[in-house]
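$ run holo --ligand "zinc ion" --emit tokens
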Amino acid sequence: MEFGNKLNSEMALSLKQTLPLLIKKIRLLISCCTLCGNACQQHQLLCQYCQADLPYFKEDLIGFDLLSWPAIKQALPKTTFDHLFSLAPYQWPFSTWINQLKYQGKTELAGLLAYLLAQRWQQYLSAVEEPKVAEQLLVLSVPLHISKWQERGFNQAHLIAKRFAKQFNYNYQPELLIRKKITQSQVGKSGVARRKNLANAFRINSAYLGEFAEHVILIDDVVTTGTTANEICKLLKKRGVQTITLLSICLALPS
Ligand SMILES: [Zn+2]
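-- output --
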């Protein structure tokens, strides 16, 4: 009897371990690439050939931290974040994926974007000598105002950030930052107008003061002038955060 119970629990354990892998394999078998329609190998929405052709920033030329590139540093001169990682310029297919995610509710694309972001971050971790360990890091996402959240039903930055953080076992606190002001669209506004629009737009939820770490990864879908991130990073640095890495899918510098 005891032997039978042991066997059952061992079988349950082995099923628990193999089931997710099996489900992933089945999903891959029945999925096709969103870009070319061919069979997928690693992620159910993108085949390996289309993935290899994505218009990434070339880290072999400019490094992972885009702020080390003079042209980008010049375009974003007064950042309060210390490092900037973006996968690509704001162009197809990333621009289409972000639009479909935000405005057509294709939330499965958050999984694809988080997967691509995590792959890039893993390459960075492998390239640096002493990468930060999970205990030193806190992941945050740029919050939406509650009224915007109600209108859209989700925050795309949150959907990406929670999957990204899970992949690396990083502490993620989606409710630490609060957007308290409804801001108008930043599109077409000058630098001064953007800062005025976003002044005092965020606050820190005092219930989470014990969660701060030395290093923060702040996640947003698209970075344009960096004004939004700057406002948040000012608050975080006042709370003693030492370094902040802004991590985004796209960088869309204003022309
Ligand atoms: Zn493809």
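-- notes --
The beta strands are 83-89, 137-141, 171-172, 177-179, 202-204, 215-223, 243-251.
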